[in-house]
Amino acid sequence: MGYIVPRVTCHLMSLFVTFGLALLTANTPLAVVLSMPDTTIMAGDSLRLPVLVDSIPASPGVLAYQVFFQFDSLQIVGIGADANGAVTERLGEPFHSGGAIAGELRIAAAGLHPVSGVGALCYVTLRALPNSVGSASITISSALLNEGTPPVSWTNPISTITIRSTSIRHEPKASQPSPIIIAPQPSSGIIRITLPENTAEREVHLVDILGRESGRYRLSSGHSVTVSHLSSGIYFLVTPEEQQPVRIVIHK
User: Fold this and answer.
1) I need a labelling partner for 14 at 20 to 30 A (CA). Which of 29, 147, 228, 247 fits?
2) Residue 223, C-beta contacts closer than 8 angstroms, at least 6 positions apart
3) Could you give the 3-state DSSP secondary structure of residue 156?
């Protein structure tokens, strides 16, 4: 009968280990996912791109962040960063390395009031060099929220920028199309999409903040789309004709 006690003790220890692992898992915050849209730019032009977050939790919130970007210095120059309209706007304007480091853009910000939410962590401004053409990959070499909590994840390349030759700019055009208009913003049920004048029916894709397709439609101007089935968050309307995705905010 002496063997019963060790077996019971082992069983209890196994239960304690399982319970401890469950508590550890429950208390480990989910990683905040960073993403950026792909886009197209003319050689020599600048563009402002959002660094998107899927969700910054209210607890612990974020008091500081830093992100280091890398790219081909023969194609792209880092100009700066800002937080206008970003979820981190209360932390103030981020410090940035500008064009001080070839092939890199480093940004960082810190404040006294924690921030949380879904949307843009910040915006970065990049410029395509005048003689560059082709695809330029933007990667993140390091990213940190607070001192590492909550953790951060991303997939490189975080964004691909297609650089077009300026010779295309001088091709004759009848007129410049007006931008796509989406209203209301934010929406919880139905959005109305107004296409540029004299635009034929076209196919559009609705993607979420991680680039996953949430819908595909063939639209003409003034078409209405039901979005009540979508969760709250940031989405983008993507069309082959538009150089930049059109932002849509769903709020319920």
Assistant:
1) 29
2) 192, 193, 195, 217
3) coil
pLDDT in tens, 21-42: 444 444 566 899 999 999 998 9
Interacting residues of 79 by C-beta distance below 8 A, sequence separation 6+: 46, 98, 99, 105, 125, 126, 127
Chain-centroid distance, C-alpha 97: 21
Please enumerate in sequence order all residues whose Cβ is within 8 A of that of 6, keeping only pairs 6 or more positions apart, or say none: none
Q: How far apart are CA 49 and CA 206, in angstroms?
A: 18
pLDDT 10s digits, 154-176: 999 999 999 988 765 544 444 44
- How far apart, in whole angstroms, are the C-alpha atoms of residue 162 and residue 42? 8
Minimal CA–CA distance to 38: which of 245, 239, 235, 240?
A: 245
- For residue 39 the two structure tokens come to 């886009």
